[in-house]
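Suppose you are handed only these lines of text.
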Amino acid sequence: MKLLVIGLGQCGGRVADEFARRDRRAREQRGLTILSRALAVNTDVTDLSGLHFIKSDAQHRVLIGGRKSGGHGVGKINELGAEIAREEGDRVLEAVEWSQQDSLADAFLLAAGAAGGTGSGMIAELTQQMKERYPDRPVYCLIILPFHYEELTEDRAIYNVGTCLKSVYLVADAVFLVDNQRYIADGEPIRTNLTRINSRVVDPFYNLLCAGEEKDPKFIGSRVVDAGDIIETLSGWTVIGHGQTPVSRSRFGVGPKLDFRNRVAETEKGIHAMNQALAALSLKCRPSDARKALYLLTAPPEGMSMNLIKDLSMSLRAAATGALIRSGDYPRGRDSLHVTVVLSELTNAIRISDFFSKAIRYVYLKQRRRGEIQEGREGFDEALRDIPLLL
Ligand SMILES: Nc1nc2c(ncn2[C@@H]2O[C@H](COP(=O)(O)OP(=O)(O)OP(=O)(O)O)[C@@H](O)[C@H]2O)c(=O)[nH]1
Ligand SMILES: [Mg+2]
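From them, the structure of the protein bound to guanosine-5'-triphosphate can be written out as follows.
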């Protein structure tokens, strides 16, 4: 599957840059292209200059909102980010149009940090504009949720997350949720922390995107996960995870005469990677709340037995009890077995309801301060209506 990735704001730009790094790796190591392009859009010149893998010309790094932001970002005011996207979104669409001339994407992926101003404000508006321009292709969003300490110290962060999530859910075909807090490592400097987090955020997409782009028969699985499977799986709130375990060729077993002990070891390793993927989902949630799920097994060809695939399916079925499950295998690599899991159409995620509750409270307190509160209200649905949209 080929994506056009558009990073918005600093966080989104860096995540898009990490996708561009993986695309380069796929070309160099596997001879595959997994991105039609990676673009970065920002109101901040310095943030755009800090990227490494996205090409540096103005078609790939698009600076907008100069008159409103002076080229220095929008200082966490996401309404301003939304306004700039409304006024200058056509500049982004021009860059997308140009990028599609020589390499067509199967889908678009827009990425942003929900707690900031530029990306958080622009993402829903640009998603809507993209959907209008390209009605036949899916537009997905990848939203990075803030660290706990940001929630505690910056009220505005909660409000930005609430407005961004509510808006994006209305317009995107699916929203990948990524919780920064899941990846935090104490004691690590913030800069290396973020670089490592971005790498882990993009990791699970790698094999998933490569699998459907393979042309060499020896790397084509018995059940290929292609763009169609991924598009059918993705809808609404979505999480993604990845697990891996080393396999040694001798212990893993080679050829049809697989010793029964190796077969047990093979299953154990597969299940271990599946459990790891479920434990490392990009946002903590209950797999049983997913309506759709997909997994991809990537392993050395000689270790890819039907039994293993059956065991993995049963294992995911036991966790994602209410989901329609798609699956595939990808015979790649020599010494490790990978399982990638996507859970989609989640009906519940505590962290998301929690953000909405806190954003409602933030709006309530703001209105009370301004004397705008009417007595005698209000239920959750009604209160949710009070969170403004950025569209
Ligand atoms: N995972 C990850 N999170 C990041 C990164 N950079 C910033 N964030 C998070 O993104 C949020 C802030 O958003 P930014 O992207 O910095 O804001 P922006 O879109 O540039 O908006 P303004 O700077 O306000 O104009 C915070 O929650 C940060 O923790 C990054 O490289 N990786
Ligand atoms: Mg910024």
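What can we learn from it? Confidence is low (pLDDT under 50) at residues 251-257. Residues 9-11, 14, 43-44, 47, 73-76, 113, 115-120, 144, 146-147, 150, 180, 194, 197-198 surround guanosine-5'-triphosphate (ligand 1) (CB under 6 Å).
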